[in-house]
């Protein structure tokens, strides 16, 4: 999503935690052909994610509910979603904690097996080694955790070159160790997500610095936590000319640094008034289907870490049909879909993507989308 500054003073007041500067979507810049930054291959355990014929794997009744790797390896049948083993969930709203996730999933009529959250971005320390609260807030969540993790703090654009030089490698090692300490080593990290979004401090203003920073962070994080699953995610639909050379995939850090390739996909800019519009947007460069094909060409599974309606965008209204088209797309691509998470947010006139919140005075009712979501995602 765009306009991080407008979303930066998060949900945490309701939780009694003084955590500020959390963004909804973050952006980073990566350069694939970067000879100045040596490539360090991940350990075998860090790169052993299933990447292709996941449906040939037998169902594992003993798969640990909190293990991203074991859950992603479960077979997902094309044509249904979530089905028996699809990873489907939401971010915590109004508080980034398990209670908010469970409330949403109770209302939809099906437990969530994935929860998406964010670290604080005040400075490098709060973003990495001092982010234990992220895991404490989900200590009782018996599912897979997805952490959206910036590459530099808010307003830290000038730090990208230093990150690419390895100056913050110890911070990344500390973050990896923290994940392990909290029993969440085998979780998904959306590292430097939405690097092609103008409001992100780690956006791809300098593609080489972005790629170098991502690679350094990924390598250091994996050295302390070989089980981490790294998800490289873009913002859907378009990349400004000054970011990643005008195309998000120019910032791809390389297959050995990425386990999952994903997209954040909202019904705005452009919105989809018809199924033909939805399909056309999905097939266009940096659209849902276009980027899925990019992921598959690299042998990676795909994720949709944020998605939702956007009635305050160019649509200007609730659009329950978008919920249906997204569900149909998930079902049609289930075999290679690692996970998806709806994005909840009520933020005045900017973001009103929330559903299933009929009694929240700050949220638009979005009744049609709420009904469509409940009908489809209980299956």
Automatic annotation (TrEMBL):
The lineage of its organism: Bacteria, Bacillati, Actinomycetota, Actinomycetes, Micromonosporales. PROSITE patterns: GH26. The keyword Hydrolase applies. It comes from Actinoplanes couchii. InterPro entries: GH, GH26_dom. The active site is at 194 (proton donor), 306 (nucleophile). Keywords: Glycosidase, Hydrolase. Gene3D superfamilies: Glycosidases (3.20.20.80). Belongs to the glycosyl hydrolase 26 family. This is GH26 domain-containing protein. Residues 42-63 are annotated as: Disordered.
């Amino acid at each position: 999503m765009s306009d991080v500054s407008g979303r930066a003073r998060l949900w945490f007041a309701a939780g009694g935690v003084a955590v500020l500067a959390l963004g909804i979507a973050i952006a980073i810049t990566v350069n694939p052909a970067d000879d100045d930054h040596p490539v360090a291959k991940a350990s075998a355990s860090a790169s052993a994610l299933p990447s292709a014929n996941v449906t040939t794997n037998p169902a594992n009744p003993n798969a640990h509910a909190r293990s991203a790797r074991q859950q992603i390896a479960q077979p997902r049948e094309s044509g249904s979603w979530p089905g028996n083993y699809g990873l489907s969930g939401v971010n915590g709203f109004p508080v980034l904690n398990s209670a908010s996730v469970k409330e949403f999933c109770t209302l939809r009529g099906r437990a969530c097996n994935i929860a998406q959250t964010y670290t604080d971005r005040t400075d490098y320390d709060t973003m990495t080694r001092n982010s234990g609260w992220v895991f404490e807030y989900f200590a009782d969540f018996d599912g897979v955790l997805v952490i959206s993790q910036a590459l530099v703090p808010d307003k830290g654009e000038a730090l990208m070159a230093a990150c690419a030089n390895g100056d913050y490698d110890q911070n990344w090692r500390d973050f990896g160790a923290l994940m392990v300490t909290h029993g969440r080593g085998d979780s998904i990290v959306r590292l430097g997500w939405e690097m092609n979004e103008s409001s992100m401090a780690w956006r791809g203003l300098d593609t080489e610095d972005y790629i170098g920073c991502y690679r350094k962070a990924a390598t250091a994080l994996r050295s302390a936590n070989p089980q981490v699953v790294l998800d490289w995610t873009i913002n859907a639909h378009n990349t400004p000319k000054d970011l990643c050379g005008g195309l998000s995939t120019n910032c791809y850090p390389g297959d050995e640094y990425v386990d999952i390739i994903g997209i954040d996909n909202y019904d705005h800019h452009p919105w989809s008034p018809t199924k033909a519009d939805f399909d056309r947007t999905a097939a266009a460069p940096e659209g849902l289907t276009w980027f899925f094909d990019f992921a598959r060409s690299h042998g990676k599974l795909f994720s949709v870490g944020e998605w939702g309606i956007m009635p305050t965008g160019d649509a200007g209204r609730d659009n329950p049909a978008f919920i249906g088209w997204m569900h149909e797309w998930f079902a049609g691509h289930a075999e290679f879909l690692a996970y998806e998470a709806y994005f909840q947010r009520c933020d005045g006139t900017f973001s009103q993507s929330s559903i299933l919140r009929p009694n929240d005075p700050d949220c638009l009712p979005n009744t049609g989308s709420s009904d469509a979501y409940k009908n489809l995602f209980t299956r």
